[in-house]
Design brief:
This protein has 416 residues and is an alpha/beta fold. The chain is built from 12 helices and 17 strands. Belongs to the class-III pyridoxal-phosphate-dependent aminotransferase family.
């Protein structure tokens, strides 16, 4: 397929075939392709002969973006927030957050989580749960990986709420036991829902405990909202489901409305930056700020988080119906319009957690069958065996129903 045109949730190839885009640039186009609000914002900058790139020089576009971004944050963070514009990719915001917290605390160790994905630069790759992509790459060695709650594959083998409580206790022990082998951390970084890790939501109670523990121990908590933020999970930010406020928030993808933009939002008490500490050429990209402001305004004014919650529940019903009676589709999960279906081999011996092993080959067959039926989906999670759905937030009920019908037909074809 060679995509030639796009509108809303649809991609149209050079032969005129239409596809529903449930990848949406890994969630980076919240309003879909070529939305009028985004197009108008970009054209406005160009028509006004405004500067398109200014590094750190303030502009009306920069101020307008901040005026739209800051009110979306919880008051506790908003009232004492600093915003760092980073290079366009989200991984640079990750790198900036680690550097800032190491500088602010004087510590070096960082705690991340199994299954995590935070980007592909060296520092971000060190946080990654999957070791294969970083093989042969010199990544920092001061990262400690704690288990992340995973109800289908409970890392402690307990499962349910008791597992979540035990994982929180294990995390607290890591920080409080003088013989845990971990020095005072510079930061803890966590995704409120692991995206590339397989659409795995952090349980609300567990995330509240992580916030309590880090606050009591004086460890900065960084929330990576690069894929989940700006309405995708049914709240403006995914951490709001747990009713917590982090010390730093990482934003990219949807925050630029489809144009590259990346920001680090953090509490002012950690503001230890000196001139030149973290710079990037395109941190002053005005088209990204204009598109980002338009996207944020549209998301808020049209309650797209609420719409995402409703459409996500509708799609979840379709996915559950498809999975019913098909043991190959072992776990349907996610939040809002960040959903996944884990594909397994039900005939293989169970893993130590009691789950069936992932079946990446079947997941790829399902993905291919989806494509043949005009549906673009992504794969992620363990061994790439989770089929993932991240459609634009503006997707309609009728389009959701079509997604569900095409996925069901694709699964039937792959299993025949």
């Amino acid at each position: 397929m060679a995509a030639e045109r796009a509108e809303g949730v649809e991609l149209i190839d050079v032969e005129g075939e239409h596809y529903i885009d449930c990848l949406a640039g890994a969630g980076s186009i919240p309003l879909g392709h070529n939305h009028p609000a985004i197009v108008d914002a970009i054209e406005g900058v160009l028509d006004d002969a405004a500067p398109t790139h200014t590094l750190d020089i303030t502009t009306p576009q920069r101020e307008a973006f901040l005026d739209s971004l800051l009110p979306t944050l919880p008051a506790e963070l908003r009232e004492h927030a600093r915003v760092q514009f980073c290079s366009p990719a989200g991984t640079d915001a990750v790198e900036a957050s680690l550097k800032l917290m190491q500088k602010a605390t004087g510590n070096r160790d960082v705690i991340a989580f199994r299954g995590a994905y935070h980007g592909m630069t060296a520092g971000s790759m060190a946080l990654m749960g999957d070791t294969d992509p970083r093989e042969g790459v010199a990544v920092p060695g001061n990262v400690h990986h704690e288990p992340f709650p995973y109800d289908y594959r409970p890392p402690l083998g307990i499962g349910g709420a008791a597992e979540h409580e035990a994982l929180a206790t294990e995390f607290e022990t890591l920080l409080t036991d003088p013989e845990s082998g971990v020095g005072d951390p510079a930061a803890v970084i966590v995704e409120p829902i692991q995206g590339e890790g397989g659409s795995l939501p952090a349980p609300d109670g567990w995330l509240r405990e992580i916030r309590r523990i880090t606050r009591e121990q004086g460890v900065p908590l960084i929330l990576d909202e690069i894929q989940a933020g700006v309405g995708r999970t049914g709240e403006m930010y995914a951490f709001e489901h747990a009713d917590i406020v982090p010390d730093a928030v990482l934003l990219s993808k949807a925050v630029g409305g489809g144009v590259p933009l990346s920001v680090l939002v953090y509490r002012e008490r950690f503001d230890e930056w000196e001139s030149g500490d973290h710079v990037g050429t395109f941190r002053g990209h005005q088209l990204g700020m204009a598109a980002g402001r338009a996207a944020l305004d549209y998301v808020v004014e049209n309650d797209l988080p609420g719409h995402a919650a409703e459409m996500g529940a509708r799609l979840l019903d379709h996915l559950d119906a498809t999975a019913a009676g098909r043991p190959e589709l072992a776990d349907v999960r996610g939040r809002g319009l960040l959903l996944g279906v884990e594909v397994v081999d039900p005939t293989a011996a169970a893993t130590p957690t009691g789950a069936q092993p992932p079946d990446a080959e079947l997941a790829e067959e399902i993905q291919r069958a989806c494509f043949d039926r005009g549906l673009v989906v992504e794969r992620g999670g363990r061994e790439g065996a989770t089929v993932r759905f991240l459609p634009p937030l503006v997707i309609s009920e009728a389009e959701i129903d079509t997604v569900g019908e095409r996925f069901d037909a694709a699964v039937s074809a792959a299993l025949d």
